Amino acid sequence: MSRRFRSLQAQLLLWALLPILFFLIGLALTGVYAHQREMREFVARRNHSLARLTARLIADGLTQGTVGADGSGLSEVLAAVEPPTSAAVVDETGRVLAGSPMTDEMLVVSAPVGGSGWTVEVGEPVAGILSPILRLSGLAPIVAVGAGVVSLLVLALGYGQIVRPLRRLAQAAGQVSWGDYSAIAVAVGGVQEVRDLHRALREMVERIQGYQSGMRDYLGAVTQGQEAERARLARELHDGPVQELIGLGQRAEIARRLVERGETEEARSLLGELR
Prior knowledge:
3 domains, Beta-Lactamase, alpha+beta
């Protein structure tokens, strides 16, 4: 897929154009159907006038004797109707007395022939009424299906390139917040903006990991320094004051024993040394 169509702007543009596309298609089809209806009404009015005129001519022919009660002479009257318009005269039973019978593919209007029980039918093929461009309205279902397929493709593309990658990125960010830094390393795909955001988060996590590593090293160094200082103080205490205290304790014990034996002068002399 082109990098241009993988951008967030292109996706949003497609989503914005989608309702406009449906609106334009609906507007075009509405205009076509309205024009078709107007054309049908116009042809129906014209042919109805022609049917009434033909019915009057037949009625006059019946009166003047140029048209017989058995239908003779009707063909000459109907000959005035020019193609693609067709005309026919039917009796009360629907039997065609003259002309061509009407079909389902024709727009048919009728007018009664006064005093005879006959009916003049005038028809014109519907396909001939509409211009070639208006006949394309028959493709409306195909156009609608095509528009629906395009809309589904756009929605699927938007879901696959925006919604799903953002969900993956949000899930990875949640795992990172709980200490699972490896989750952010998994690619999420999507449009360029989502991938840029994922890369920025990955770099931020790497910096955090670097900060944490440096902090651990610092704390380790501080701990080692404290332990070394504690050991040094312990050695100094053991080699200096502690030994002196032990010596003082031993001399005091000797002085006590001298006092118990009555050797007070020696004890006094030893205690004087302790001062």
